[in-house]
Amino acid sequence: MMKKLLSILTPILLLGLIFVASQLLMAIAIRSMGLIDADGGVTDFGFFLSYTLSMGITLGLLMLIERGMYGKIGKIDRKSAGFDPVAILLGLIVIVATSILLMPLAKVLPERGIEVGDGTFMLITIVLIAPIIEEVIFRGRLYGILRHNSSPLLAATLSALTFGAIHLSPIVVIEGFLAGFVFSYFYIIKRSIIAPILLHMCNNAMAYALIVLSYNDESVMDIFGGQAYFIFVYIVAAIIVVTAASIMITRLVKEKRRIASSTDVEIATQAEAQE
Fold first, then answer.
1. CA nearest to 42, candidates 34, 261, 123
2. Would you list the domain boundaries of the chain?
3. What is the per-residue pLDDT for 197?
4. What pLDDT score was predicted for residue 20?
């Protein structure tokens, strides 16, 4: 039991250490390269360079960890079936509903503390590069590693928790975990990394637009017609989230049974072939 627990926690802890170390390393490098704006913050290009290199380092070392633990680097599913506009739209609706549900919590938790520029490099990083590299790391690689010793549901939950944790800001950690679970679900059900990447891109594009346009919780509430209408929208969002969570958890439990059944059939087939 303890050995299994360690095999599950080890890659998560190592990933966390690698992520923190790479972020610190790139922060030092960016400042030494002078990629700092007049306000003392990182320039758009500096952010692009720092993010891409630090996450690239994280991905590379995570692959080495996987090879060290299991002797090989697993394949990432990327079937064309992952390009499913309807599924992506449904996933986006669930994520938006989750964000609406978290609005009251966002008012009592610390501010996000994230300054996002509106330059080209910032846009490319947030909307294109981040979804690709983060999905490869957390769904393609980490989920695959965790699946060696855990069920699809547990692996999806832990990879989503880790994904949320790297965002640091309390409310974004919660949002990241919930969105990460949806990303994991579509990766598992669609058996393709394409689905969560596209969904992640849509989510980031929408979040980026709201930040750049300076929307906050109050202005978003106004979009729904004020507090009275927002209460109705909030109830609908709660129903969507609860229903979606029930469906996703049920499907992931069934996925474990399907995999077990497929494994049994494969073993039986191999045994018959050897006779």
1. 34
2. 79-274
3. 95
4. 92
